[in-house]
Amino acid sequence: MAVVLVAGGATGIGRATVLAFSRQGDSVLLVDRNGPAAQTVVAEAGGPKIAVLELDLASPSAPLAAVDTAISTFGAIDAVFVAAALLSAAPLADWTPEMWARSSDLNLRMPFLLAQAAAPHLTHSGNASITFTASTGALRGHAGMPAYHGTKTALLGLCRSLADELGPSGIRVNCILPGWIDTPFNDPFWAAQGDPTAARAKIEAEIPLRRQGVPEDVSGAVIFLASPAARYITGTSLVIDGGYTAV
């Protein structure tokens, strides 16, 4: 069984993925600033090994602390999954340097620092992987979300660079690109729309499967990318969007 570090595992896609890893018997360190929600995930999983580290992942020291905790708790790391992110929506004129920095710190700097901290330990695994959560926002844009689109696009470049550097050490690095997944994470976008109900209906009508996804539509792909079945997959970007970017 594997040891998995999930950054941002208390809600949404991260939560669904923690539960999926747990169901197959893996040990999981769930890192999230929402401690009560994280403990709810532990209670829901029941029995299997899930440890919780309550931490603000946007802090520069958080990634190393998360890796150190995983090693001290389980003795190893086999997979890292980064789900934590920030979506802020505002007209261009209303953006401040602080808003931009917060998005960049969590969406881009944190995945880099987490990969940097985990890499020396991942080299000891027989099936090491890092999976970042980018977004179909890396492939197309929506007004009012420059930091989100900018950082998620940058994650694709980070993924490719790390895949090249870490591949010789046996560490695979990939990105998933979820489309519209129906979780509270997207609430800032809907709130910024003049008519949120109409905006939601328009987007759902543009998705070939005619619905938004749910977290469980994404977690299976993360499990696959961390599994031996994906042992020859690295540096790639897997779109999970119901066909939204295909048409």
- Note the overall shape: globular
Instruction: State the total count of DSSP E strands.
Output: 7
Order of helices and strands: EHEHEHEHEHEHHHE
Query: Major sheet, described briefly?
Result: 7 strands, parallel
State Rg: 17 Å
Give the strand order of the largest sheet, numbering strands 1, 2, ... along the chain. Answer: 3-2-1-4-5-6-7
Strand content: 15-25%
Low-confidence segments: none
Helix and strand content put the structural class at alpha/beta
Distance between the termini: 40 Å
Helical amount: 40-55%
How many helical stretches? 8
Q: Which whole number gives the mean pLDDT?
A: 96
Task: Please sum up the structure shown.
The chain is of the alpha/beta class and 247 residues long. It contains eight helices and seven strands; from the N terminus they run βαβαβαβαβαβαααβ.
SSE inventory with pairings:
Elements: E1 3-7, H1 12-23, E2 27-32, H2 35-45, E3 50-54, H3 62-74, E4 79-82, H4 97-122, E5 128-133, H5 146-166, E6 171-178, H6 187-191, H7 196-206, H8 216-226, E7 237-240
Parallel strand pairs: 1-2, 1-4, 2-3, 4-5, 5-6, 6-7
Helix pairs in contact: 1-2, 1-8, 3-4, 4-5
